[in-house]
Amino acid sequence: MKVAGYIAGIGLILLGFTGLLADAGQTRPLSWALWFGGLVIAHDLLLVPLVLAAGLLVRRMRWPYRAATVIGALITVVALPVVLGFGRRPGNPSLLPLDYGMNLLCVLAVIAAGGLLADVFTRVREKRVREARRSPRPRG
């Protein structure tokens, strides 16, 4: 099954390259290659070290806080272009009209509260399990 997936993936990649080269006047393969190369370099020199550093920072956290941190980071990365106003035009107030920074903070607060609640429930459950193991069992 894995081999079939690899074959299908390679086929789709080849199809994409064929389209890129067949319509070279419109797709500009050199520009695409430079963009793709820059993407690979940015991934290897920027994204991977950041993810590894974040992994070191959250490895000792309890799972609810670790999950909330990862989810919050992902949402922040996705929302950051809107928060920074990329695409906003002064002549068109209907583009990005909301206070996206405040909205992001509200979403992050909800995620943090969810992590806190999950940790409280987890601790309560763990405490009940420990108490159940310590209490003597009734003889019957």
- Helix coverage percent: over 70%
Low-confidence stretches: none
Shape call = extended
> How far is it from the N-terminal to the C-terminal residue, by CA?
54 Å
Give a quick account of the main beta sheet: strands, pairing sense, barrel closure: none
Task: Provide the succession of SSEs.
Answer: HHHHH
Task: Tell me the strand percentage band.
Answer: under 5%
What does this structure look like?
With 140 residues, the protein is mainly α. Helices cover 79% and strands 0% of the residues. The chain contains five helices and no strands. The protein has helices at residues 2-22, 24-27, 29-58, 63-83, 100-134. Helix 4 (63-83) runs antiparallel to helix 5 (100-134). It is extended, with a radius of gyration of 25 Å. The termini are far apart. The model has no long low-confidence stretch (mean pLDDT 91).
